[in-house]
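REQUEST FORM: STRUCTURE PREDICTION
Request ID: SP-0412
Submitted by: Lab K.M.
Chain count: 1
Length (residues): 70
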Amino acid sequence: MTGTQGTSAGGPLGLDPDLLSILACPDTHHTPLTVDEAAGELVCATCDRGFPVREGIPVLLLDEARHRTS
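STATUS: Completed
RESULT:
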C-alpha cells in the first residue's frame, strides 16, 4: 500500500524548511524571506512586500505581492 503519509513538509505554512532557507525576494536586492504565519505569506524585510503561499506553494511574483505598509 502506497500513500503520502509522512511526506508533509512540516515547516511553517506547509513549506519545507530547506526550501525556506534559500527563498529570497525576487526583486533586485534578493533579501531572504521570513514567514508571517498569521498572514499566510513570506515577507521581504527590505521592501516590506508580502508574498502569498497558496496550498503550500510560495507565489514569488512581484505582481502578486502586497505592500505591507501603508
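NOTES: The mean pLDDT is 86.
Reviewed by: T.R.
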